[in-house]
Specification:
With 235 residues, this protein is α/β, with parallel strands linked by helices. It has helices at residues 16-27, 59-71, 94-119, 144-163, 189-192, 204-216, and strands spanning 7-11, 31-36, 47-51, 76-79, 124-131, 169-176, 224-227. Belongs to the short-chain dehydrogenases/reductases (SDR) family.
């Protein structure tokens, strides 16, 4: 166990933005604990795969415990895992509510609570992945449960940033617009690009760049950084 190498935990890490973040942190020299429901171990000994549904009680603590047992410390958590279901409000089901709040809220809460406890002796950084729909709702994507949960994450980001500012723990969020990921099919992108003033789709590298900027920005905490082509600014 090497307790000097910095360690990042990334949820939702098996594909898309999460997998790109794993690669980004490895390039920085971080060891990575990668979580998703079905993630499998790879060839890199500095990437520990911890499968599990963070919406289930106890999984968040298990991820942090695995990081401490394997690498000896926790320095950064990127709460990337999330569920997004766009539906008219009255068509949401109880199952939709349970799934979205389970991952977006319970997952964030349990992972972050355990991580902050592990960071208190040396400091650290939480990054919460949010959405610009919290700031700029649109009829093109009715998504009140995303706003309910991710809006809560934005508020929690600021609250935790203030609570832990003097203890060396920074807390920030990255609010995303439309990013090219497996969540969308190729034929959707032309229409989705119209949701932001730049009229284009963001790339996964744009998200990684934003998260890694915050990782290096020691005087930045409580920030909601929009990576959305100007979507949150207006149309």
């Amino acid at each position: 166990m090497n307790t000097t190498t910095r360690v990042a935990i990334i949820t939702g890490a098996s594909q898309g933005i999460g997998a790109a973040l794993v690669e980004g942190y490895r390039k920085l020299g971080y060891a990575v604990v990668a979580n998703s429901r079905t993630i499998e171990a790879g060839d890199d000994p500095m990437v520990l795969a911890v499968p599990g549904d963070i919406g289930e009680p106890g999984v968040g603590q298990r991820i942090i415990d695995a990081a401490l047992e394997h690498f000896g410390r926790v320095d950064t958590v990127v709460n990337n895992a999330g569920i997004f279901i766009a539906k008219p409000f009255t068509e949401y089901t109880d199952a939709d509510y349970d799934a979205i709040t389970g991952v977006n809220l319970r997952g964030f809460f349990e992972v972050s609570r355990a991580a902050v406890a592990a960071m208190e002796d040396h400091g650290g950084h939480l990054v919460n992945i949010s959405t610009s729909l919290v700031d700029q709702a649109t009829t093109a994507a009715p998504s009140v449960l995303a706003s309910l949960t991710k809006g809560g994450l934005n508020a929690a980001t600021r609250s935790l940033a203030v609570e832990y500012a003097t203890r060396g723990i920074r807390v920030n969020a990255v609010a995303l617009g439309i990013i090219r990921t497996p969540m969308h099919s190729d034929d959707e992108y032309a229409g989705l690009a119209q949701l932001n003033p730049q009229k284009r789709i963001g790339e996964q590298s744009d998200v990684v760049d934003a998260v890694l900027y915050l990782e290096h920005a020691g005087f930045v905490t409580g920030e909601i950084l929009h990576v959305d082509g100007g979507q949150a600014a207006g149309h």
